[in-house]
């Protein structure tokens, strides 16, 4: 049976691993196939992440570019939607 200290240590390790996984999860759309494989190993084996600060900076940049592209497409779609909503509708005879 676990003692209080052992239980607390195990809980802290679990929470740290979960935090690492969740921190990296936001970069999944911009990871290379090799990085995705390493992430999968990390998640499935509870291994520590081995991604350096340069990799994380690259992901942040790619994620920001991706978000800007999404924002532009959403804005364009909203403008198009507004234009369509302002069109006069044909009257029913």
Arithmetic mean of pLDDT? 87
The tally of structural domains comes to 1
Computed over alpha carbons, the radius of gyration is 23 Å
Given the helix and strand composition, which structural class is it? Answer: mainly alpha
What does this structure look like?
This protein starts with a helix and ends in a 7-residue tail after the last helix. It is mainly α. The chain is elongated. The chain contains 3 helices and no strands. The model has no long low-confidence stretch (mean pLDDT 87). The protein has helices spanning 4-25, 33-45, 53-86.
Please give a quick description of this structure.
The protein has 93 residues and is mainly α. 74% of the residues lie in helices and 0% in strands.
Attribute tags:
93 residues; mainly alpha; 3 helices; 74% helix; elongated
Outline the secondary-structure elements.
Blueprint: H1 4-25, H2 33-45, H3 53-86
């Amino acid at each position: 049976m676990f003692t209080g200290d052992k239980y607390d240590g195990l809980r802290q390790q679990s929470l740290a691993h979960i935090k690492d996984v969740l921190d990296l999860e936001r970069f999944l759309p911009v990871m290379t196939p090799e990085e995705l494989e390493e992430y999968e190993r990390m998640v499935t084996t509870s291994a520590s992440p081995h991604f350096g600060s340069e990799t994380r900076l690259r992901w942040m940049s790619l994620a920001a570019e991706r978000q800007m592209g999404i924002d532009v497409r959403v804005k364009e779609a909203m403008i198009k939607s507004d234009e369509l909503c302002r069109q006069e509708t044909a009257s029913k005879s």
